[in-house]
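User: Structure with iron/sulfur cluster, tokens only please.
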Amino acid sequence: MLRSITQYRPVTAKKLTELRYWDNLSVDYRKTFLVASEVLPFRVNEYVLENFIDWSAPEDDPMFRLLFPQEGMLTRSQFARIEAAQNATSTDLREAVRVTREELNPHPAGQMTDNIPTLGEDILDGIQHKYAETALFFPSAGQTCHAYCSFCFRWPQFVGEPAWKIQAREAAQAVSYLRCHQEITDILITGGDPLIMNSKNLRRYVEPFLAVESLKTIRFGSKAVTYWPHRFLAGEDAADLLSLFEEIVASGKSLAFMAHLTHSRELEPPEVKAAINAIRATGATIRTQAPLLKHVNDDPVVWAKLWTDCSALGIYPYYMFVERDTGPSGYFRVPLWRAHEIYSSAISRVSGLSRTARGPVMSSHPGKVVIDGIVEVHGQRALSLRFLQAREPTFVGRVFLAEFDETASWLDDLRPLGGGEFFFEARGKPTEPAAPQWTAPERIMGGVHA
Ligand code: SF4
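Assistant:
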């Protein structure tokens, strides 16, 4: 029988060892947890512990793997380094943790270099501008979450390294930037999870954007719907939040709630459904996106159920991402050909309304690249890829081919079919107008891996 939990109580690594859940974990797992959680951020809450994990066999549970560090998230040598340092001084341990985190590629895809905008002489804090129409805004009070996902590519935001944090103390600079860049129609308020803030704080960040006429859509990136649905249901602060949503819609801007939904199980609790209804009643739209993760959701049946259940609840399936090359990504990695196979199988099981989901998509340095299929060109297998979004706008829609590689799990692992370099790797060369850069394959294999 589930305990009803209506008050938010975070659970840290230290706190977990004092709770009854700890007793359900094997001795081997406890050792893994105590070592890996030194490096990887860990935070859950009583609601997710109670509602999403099967405590009769937790270590086989996909939601457990989504929330708890696992063996294989650190390499053997990293694990041994931390284990040894735990028996040394606190300075040694801190240094071992720092070195290990550096090895985990904390800022992939040029996040700390190529995406940070300037205004005059100023480098702007807490804003990223990668694609012409969309800017990301990171309010400093929103750089944590109701629980942490073990895969999260935003993990450097959570580990207390000030130099790694992307954050803005207020919205004024971002507003000035938007006024100078009227091509930006969408702002994504993200984190962490911006809905970790109370509504008064959130309002302080959001209201200035309502006065920017060129801005058409305000997006929130959040997992609060499933990690803490009572954020939308209980008390004065929830009512304030929903009023803020209504005010955004009443201002004439579109409010797009970008929900992180990783597994179909997340939609089961009745309070999650109630939270979704409450958000939609404000006039906001909800879209869902998540990465494909080995050990968690690498099963087309799970995705098909997630997308079908989303559509039934009025949520638009949006993206199936490829897990980014950061943090413990080696544990979650799915080869690109297999990712395409899972996507194709999942999308073939859902009705047309759920086929709004695009994937598998790599959010890479040059842009969002979707794997469209596995094709055969003059007897050679290849991956057919296409830019959905790009740092360089003329790349959008361009199709390109890469040699089939059974082990490739990211764009950087691929080589162009026929040799040379990909067109987007060419530095200092003028870009050509958008045009398919390929010849029709002799036979489309339609996602079937032979
Ligand atoms: S809720 Fe979102 S930002 Fe927070 S850890 Fe999960 S994926 Fe990352």
